[in-house]
Amino acid sequence: MALIEVIDFKKSFSHKTVHDGVTFYVKKGECVGLVGGSGAGKSVILRSLIGLEKPDSGSILIDGIDITNFTEQELVSIRKKVAYVFQGGALFDSMTVFENLAYPLKAHFNMTESDILIKIKNQLEEFGLIDSINLYPSELSGGMQKRIGLARAMMMNPDIILYDEPTAGLDPYNTNKIQELILRLKTKGVTSILVTHDMPTAMNVCDKFAFLKNKIISEQGTIEQLKNNKNSLIHQFIEGHIL
What we know:
Layout: E1 2-13, E2 16-27, E3 31-36, H1 42-49, E4 57-62, E5 65-66, H2 72-81, E6 82-85, H3 97-108, H4 113-126, H5 142-153, E7 160-164, H6 172-187, E8 191-195, H7 199-205, E9 208-213, E10 216-222, H8 223-227, H9 233-239
Parallel strand pairs: 3-8, 3-9, 6-7, 7-8
Antiparallel strand pairs: 1-2, 1-4, 4-5, 9-10
Helix pairs in contact: 3-5, 5-6
């Protein structure tokens, strides 16, 4: 069963049509790479999956529930299930790492301070980030900020994680760390969509691809189906022949 379904999604900004009938799905436990050239509207789709954008027409289903016309109040329950890992980490500059991770717990759950501390320490230990617990974002490298952003996304125990260019601008060490974390979360059954231009990372962590071109999903399939087919858009994108 598909945990995420995007059906005939259409979206325009002013007089510019960005999407004109995008359709794809993600099964439970899958990681789907949503790829395509710059300006194709990949992030627009991610934002729509948590209600930050509204389609002009079409449907978005999360676990069989159409969220297209949900109010902000109704979206609260969806945002507990669906975590968004922003490109820059999107940490609060004035808060320590601990305070950043505690924020969603205090906003959505009735937990004691000691339970919050235990949960945060366990998450940071798992991600190899415990030494950063009392640091501020300005004291962290870009790679560390992105890993902390992912740790914060996990605070809600989401069923789905949306990754928006999680390795952009990172050195090989931090890129590998992000890959390891994505793969670790996959083993726990987390369903995900990865928006990226980093094709080596996508090849390492994704189960299938959906290629966004000409305002629709022009091609989709498993890595095995696409990467060895020289006529496929994915193969040409990997080789750098199309943008």
